């Protein structure tokens, strides 16, 4: 693994410890509440709570009322952010990458473009708020991309996020959308297990310009060109990596789960593959153990600057590592997250997703919140 890649992982693993004093506003139903203070919004119902930071728009806490373990504890401090992001919101938990995944070009940085796009770096506006629903908006003047996000909590431990993206420029452009979900301790530990219906994949290290070189199949991935491997489902290995996968063309939905046998809590995400055809799994380990694990789904395959992606054919089984959005074009994408208290010390849970329901281990089921 090259020094640049290791350095990026070292930057991306420091825990976020900022506490925000909150005030409570109780709705008509006393079992449900909204908490707003500074830039924090908390949605809550009888089964779960979800916390969003307006500054950067990140989901920073999701937990069940019956077993309040938060998987989204990973974050950076302002000092640990890239130089072109230091004046904005730090990366934390689950945030939106819009316009790009990763670093802009040197020329774009000179124009003020931050890593992962402007939305994750700036303040979002709240246009509607209730105990279980929020509508947020953010417009990026430099990227020329606007987003409207609606978040709803369901009664069965699920939340649904609908985002509408608009190109506000007079020119079309290549772009990307990635849901940058990163897990942190204590939910993330040596027993935590990842699962997905992902298929073919490649290691970001060494994949450009031909991602088919050294390709592999989920969940056993190549760490290097020598054939050394790792199991992406495990967090017990000492390996640092960033692996990228596509899905079976016959599947309608993509899904990923993270299960902590210590607490018994499972966090899962499901989405339509027509909207998000890729998933990126990245791992950072320290001497003390696992510190961060990304389960990021989106429209990005190879994490390169657009000039690099357009100069050569980088398609992987026909999939581009970018999408194109015309002037004033509107793209709508929806995903759902869910949490289930499965019980402690189980094996890696299996998942079956249909248009009607999501079934875990053959018996625990919730309605598919995307339908």
Description:
- This protein is mainly beta.
- It has one domain: Beta-galactosidase, Chain A, domain 5.
- 5% of the residues lie in helices and 43% in strands.
- Strands 7-8-9-10-24-20-19-13 form an 8-stranded antiparallel sheet, with no helix packed on it. It has a 7-stranded antiparallel sheet with strand order 6-12-22-21-18-14-15, with no helix packed on it. A 5-stranded antiparallel sheet has the order 1-2-3-4-5, with no helix packed on it.
- The longest helix has 9 residues, at 3-11.
- It starts with a helix and ends with a strand.
Descriptive terms for the model:
371 residues; mainly beta; Beta-galactosidase, Chain A, domain 5; eight-stranded antiparallel sheet; seven-stranded antiparallel sheet; 3 helices; 27 strands; 5% helix; disordered N terminus
How would you summarize this macromolecular structure in one to three sentences?
With 371 residues, the chain is mainly beta. It contains three helices and 27 strands.
Structure classification: mainly beta
- What's the shape? globular
Q: How many alpha or pi helices?
A: 3
Low-confidence stretches: 1-38
Major sheet: size, sense and barrel closure? 8 strands, antiparallel
Count of the domains: 1
How widely separated are the two ends? 42 Å
CATH architecture: Distorted Sandwich
Rg calc: 19 Å
Strand and helix order: HEEEEEEHEEEEEEEEEEEEEEEEHEEEEE
What strand order characterises the main sheet? Answer: 7-8-9-10-24-20-19-13
How much of the sequence lies in strands comes to 35-45%
CATH C-level: Mainly Beta
- How many β-strand stretches? 27
Average pLDDT score: 89
Task: Give the CATH topology.
Answer: Beta-galactosidase, Chain A, domain 5
Give the helix proportion (percent range).
Answer: under 10%
